[in-house]
Amino acid sequence: MEVIKTKNLTKTYDDGAVPVHAVNDVSLSIAEGEFTAVVGPSGSGKTTLLNIIGGLDRPTSGSVQVDGQELRSLNENQLIKFRLDNIGFVFQAYNLIPVLTAKENTEFIMLLQGVNEKKRHERVMQLLEEVGIQEQANKRPGEMSGGQQQRVAVARALASQPKFVLADEPTANLDSKSADNLLDLMLKLNKEENVTFIFSTHDQRVIDRARRVITLVDGAISSDITK
Amino acid sequence: MMLLKVAWKNIWRNKVRSFVVITALALGLWAGVFAGAFVKGMMQSKVKALVHTEISHMQIHEPGFRDEYQGTYVIENNDAVIQSLQQDERVEAVSERLISMGMLQSARKTSALRLVGVNPELEKKVSNLHEMLVEGSYFESKVKRPIVLSQKTAEEYDIKMGSKVVFTMQDIHGDMKSAVYKVVGIYKTSNNMYDKMTAFVPFELIQKMYDLDQGSHEIAVWLGDHENAEPVAADYSEKFKELEVLPWLDLSLGLRMMTSAIDIYLYVIVGIILAALLFVVLNTMLMAVLERTREIGMLMAIGMDKARVFRMIMYETIFMSMVGVPIGLFISWLSVTVFGQTGIDLSAAEYENLGYASIIYPRMDFQSYVVVAIMVLVMACVASLYPAIKALRLKPVEAIRKV
């Protein structure tokens, strides 16, 4: 079952003297349960493509459908709600709320969804256990290592029970061991809970673990390999 | 609830900055309240001094007397008016006065002065001037022709207790009359202008100088409740249509305006201080938003809607106000209470020359505290509008990229 489908997706930046095609005529589909890496050199359009798929940015032309919903037809407020209910985000710099504990950071998104306290508590404890940081539940981001913070970010991304998780260079700020542990965790969640992951990355460790690798060059797909 | 928690925790991220805002709010509120209380205290002391010492609650004259101060403006039906007043339950005391504008002469100086003839025992019930003697007594000596005058007059005329002065005036026939008086009392009020112009002698002495058998120029009335002054004055105006009956508010130039404007002064002062404070809060909240551009972008990216972002910023400002305002209110209450008891001595500023007391007792009522606190809260909310709107305009995709 297709979760994401793009057709002739283009994003052009027209600010300078020469228009830049950050995403150039990209058509692809991603099915439920995929573990996909979008790779390419810097400036190849990986992040822009993920931003458009995630409803954070709008394409210049073409269409993007998530679970059958055309994102271009949604206004800004609808897009925010759509992101809340359908997409989990893991950012390169973790981007946790520094004043909240790991537990509260994970819980926050469910609070935005209006989930009741009992369900929130159960889900948070389950997620923190799954990502292996239940013992850090009451620590704030500043009291945790980068790897631990990124695990909280993964737990937060999964808390809303999204259709898929977009991870933008999730290992870029981690040491090797933390990166390996995080990727193993994501792979486990993918296999055991059928969570769909889409990464933008340079990291060979991510590419090695991905079952599908889409390579972008100058905003266009140059290869799309399923292992 | 979580939003409130995040907002509360956010304000303690940068403790120094929050402390600056909370301090600014507290000090701004204190400055506003205290300045207002000072003005209020100054005005109230002026009003109180005027009413208690100089004019009492209500006065009755022949029309035109207050314009010309001519001895011929005698209240003809004086006894009937006084009898009517004495039978009125709202009236506590009545005192009739004869007033003459004449010349006071000492060895050193001759100058114009207003001599007021009073019945001392009745006068004590409508004016507290007898409590303001700095030397001598209020007509308690057995001197035949006593006069009580002010310390200011005594200094200017170079006279002391027991000195003799000559007062020259016109009687009701237009003839000049002079009489020698002996100083038996020296008083001092908070109004130098009043002091310089006013002296007192027993009623019957000035009555004799005027060559009058009966009647008075002024009937001063003290009421049980000063709030009743206007209705009582209206009643007596109706009853004695040929007389001019004025409540205390209309007896001194600007008194009505002054009493009605006290609260306006307070709010103008607070308004000016708050206008300056607005920029402190605005600047701080703007910094707080700009510093957290990336975080706010992330919140919007993961699904926090604009209304919640807006509320979060507003909550942060309100929380800071809720810390700063009670502190400011407490400092204000404390300083107004302390200085309200001890007073602030401004004798060096010579306010007495302008008719104000030299010691000011700041005053503030509960309602004004509440109004000022609400003004500060509203100001803080207004100040945070721009930063909140700025946060709403952030585009998540751009905000997240910011380092």
| CATH level-4 homologous superfamily of chain A | P-loop containing nucleotide triphosphate hydrolases
Q: Describe the global form of chain A.
A: globular
Distance between the termini of chain A: 19 Å
- Please state the CA-atom Rg of chain A, rounded to the nearest Å: 17 Å
**Main sheet summary of chain B:** 6 strands, mixed, barrel
Helix and strand succession of chain A? EEEHEEHEHHHEHEHEE
Overall body shape of chain B: elongated
Tell me the count of domains of chain A: 1
Strand order of the largest sheet of chain B: 2-3-8-5-7-6
Low-confidence stretches of chain A: none
Count of DSSP E strands of chain B?
A: 12
- The CATH level-2 architecture of chain A is identified as 3-Layer(aba) Sandwich
Strand content of chain A: 25-35%
Question: Can you tell me the residue ranges of chain B where pLDDT is under 50 for at least 5 consecutive residues?
Answer: none
Number of helices of chain A: 7
What is the rounded distance between the termini of chain B? 29 Å
Oligomerization state of this entry?
Answer: heterodimer
Task: Please give the count of helices of chain B.
Answer: 14
Task: Specify the helix fraction band of chain A.
Answer: 25-40%
